[in-house]
Amino acid sequence: SDIFDLDDANVLHKEEQRFRRALARVYDVEVGPVRQQNRLTETAEDIKSFVQKDGEWTFENTPDSDPSLPENIEWSRQIVKAIPDCQIGIKEVEEATVSDANVLDQMLAGAAAAAEVWAARPAKERSEIIHRVGVLMSQNRAKLMEIAAAECGKALDGGDIEVSEAVDFCHYYAQQCLELEQQAGAKFQPARVTVSTPPWNFPIAIPTGSTVSALAAGSAVIFKPAKESCRTGALLAQIMWEAGVPREVLQFVQLGNRELGKNLMADERVDRVILTGSIDTAKMFRSWDNNMGLLAETSGKNAIIVTPSADLDLAVKDIINSAFSHCGQKCSASSLAILVGSVGYSERVHRQLLDGVRSLVVDYPSNPSSQTGSLCAPAKGKLLRGLTTLGPGEHWALKPKQLDESGKLWTPGIRAGVQPGSEYHLTEYFGPILGIIRCDTLEEAIEIQNATDYGLTAGLHSLDADEINLWLDRVQAGNVYVNRGITGAIVRRQPFGGWKNSAIGAGTKAGGPSYLFGLGEWEADGIPENEDVELRNRALVEAAKVARSLDSNKEFVMASLRSSQQALDSEFGIGHDPSDLRVERNVLRYRPLPVLIRLSEGEDASQVLMLAAAGRAVGSQVSVSMPQEPDSALLQYLRVQHIDYEVESDQSFRDRLPAWAAAAGLDGRIRLIGGDVKAVNEAVNGNVNVAVWSHPVTACGRVEMIPFVREQAVAFTNHRFGNHTPLSEQVKI
């Protein structure tokens, strides 16, 4: 009583009573995990509960397997036991191998005929089938993990995540295809036949995504997975057929020689080729046909910057995980760590990095303790050189070692002293190698990070809001990560795709809201009813003044401007975080880039006004090429909006395209109005860095603004040890 007043005593009494009540109930509490996931007994209805609400399909990210639950541990043991003797897909691959050009031609003819029927089915029917693919894929999770481990060396944790991503692709694209029919003013026409040619490093997720996206959009698909992962591909095809995709619509094939591959990709019945592979493969494909509708994700040379203001323990952990999971064979893997200022000379960072990498368990997936796994194929060529040969000024902080005669099992390597501009800085090696670059300032680090021809993923570790804002303003990559690892993008949450040489063609991010838009063409479909939309963007307001003076197309142009305002308000002018996680911000945002608009001979100049206004509304630096001088009203608009224009014939335009493409560098974009798109592609000699949009101009801003922006997914860790961080309010995304 000498210490506490009466109120304090009452509080203590209440706390004592609360403690006593809790103590009395201690034996009433059930002991055991609250989480009830059980992969051993999971049913189709259990799986559907995540993606169906009141009987209607929806989208929620599929949960990965919880490795802490006893039932799941036993389930994993059964998979591990099956890996050495796995026979999945062997027979199916043999049956699907084609070595005769006539047989391949028959496949293409059958796919083209089936495409008409498939495209004519309502989107809701296709959506239902693709949702069923997702459910069946979840039911086959164990088999998919088994074959990915046996065939590609994919460890169980990596294989499990891949299955979840594949399932997410199914349910997400099944929902997104419904939106293709809901674009006022534009009608979607799916590609007739799409060739899906995915890689071996993600043998489950990427093949599924590229295939079901085309199917959902209404295209027939020739599915040709990489030779190294063909058995996994055979199982995926079997699952899709079993779920209801007609066999003539989805045709699984392995080709006996490269000439047949050329015949397939360059066939006139093929409207789209979806490739995930190297930039050299993309260039080879386009050399076969300058007009190939190629959509390619071509990997990257990815780096994580660490500044002195970073949480160094977290940074080291994320560098190791990003560099060496799946043996460094993820296209998003960090093969560079750029250490700023004192971090580059920190003994603590040096020791932690070496200790962490040395502690990794390197083994085949049949060892459940394996953390890095094996290479999919023996190291050779460029990768072998990267594992064994140093560049000028470099030394091994941790030298890679080959662990067996197969050439597929290597300990991770760390090379220090990598110089900006060196071969290792600029070259992708696709294996378990991490290079260290030191520099003095964040500005210098950003220049080093941006200096490569790629722009897939990039990371920054810093707890300084000013540093983060500077980096977010300047980084040149499609997927950027703050205070976390740079691998493991999740469908919808972090749509995946790069900039520069990491993305080829007139496409958009996989697992994002616009991906299906590039899997076909668009045509004008009337005039949207949007008279009540108020124009607020300056570029659109000024364009409306010109439109009101038009003698023809006035109503069409005004509707398109209002539609562009709607698209700006709902999509392109704002950031999107549909997952809305508390612990992480995941924002899809749009960044403008230059576009050349070409009005072909015989086309109405009012279309230039529509597209130029859409481009300027999102901040694009637009330039225009026209066959005749613009009238006074359009000329005034071009001048006010600082839009350069050139008056030239179609032939003169094509003649100067090679020089224009060279000046445009890695990001050449053309919006062609009318004319001959094949002649344009021939003029640039199939340059993979030139993307051409050539569909008829529509009054749909959601469609027409896509060429003027590129997408960037920002993932930002929004907590410190579980506690909300004030950085989230200080960082501008």
Biggest sheet statistics: 9 strands, mixed
Oligomeric state of the chains in view? single chain
Structural class, by secondary structure, is alpha/beta
**Number of DSSP-assigned strands:** 30
The tally of helices reads 26
Structure description:
- The strands form eight sheets. The protein has a nine-stranded mixed sheet, with helices on both faces. The protein has a six-stranded mixed sheet with strand order 7-6-5-9-10-20, sandwiched between helices. A five-stranded parallel sheet has the order 25-24-23-26-27, sandwiched between helices.
- Helix 13 (312-324) packs parallel to helix 14 (347-358).
- It is globular.
- It is 41% helix and 18% strand.
- The protein contains 26 helices and 30 strands.
- With 733 residues, the protein is an alpha/beta fold.
- The mean pLDDT is 95.
Quick structural gist:
This protein is of the alpha/beta class and 733 residues long.
Secondary structure elements and their pairing?
Blueprint: H1 6-24, H2 44-48, E1 52-53, E2 56-57, H3 70-82, H4 90-96, E3 97-98, H5 101-120, H6 123-139, H7 141-152, H8 156-179, E4 185-190, E5 193-197, H9 205-217, E6 220-223, H10 230-243, E7 250-252, E8 254-255, H11 258-265, E9 270-276, H12 279-288, E10 294-297, E11 302-306, H13 312-324, E12 334-340, H14 347-358, H15 381-388, E13 395-398, E14 413-416, H16 423-426, E15 433-439, H17 442-450, E16 454-455, E17 457-461, H18 465-474, E18 479-482, E19 499-500, E20 503-504, E21 520-525, H19 538-547, H20 554-572, E22 584-592, E23 595-599, H21 606-617, E24 622-626, H22 632-640, E25 644-647, H23 650-664, E26 668-673, H24 677-683, E27 690-693, H25 701-704, E28 709-717, E29 719-720, E30 723-724, H26 727-730
Parallel strand pairs: 3-8, 5-6, 5-9, 6-7, 9-10, 11-12, 11-17, 12-15, 14-15, 17-18, 18-28, 23-24, 23-26, 24-25, 26-27
Antiparallel strand pairs: 1-2, 4-21, 10-20, 13-14, 16-19, 22-28, 29-30
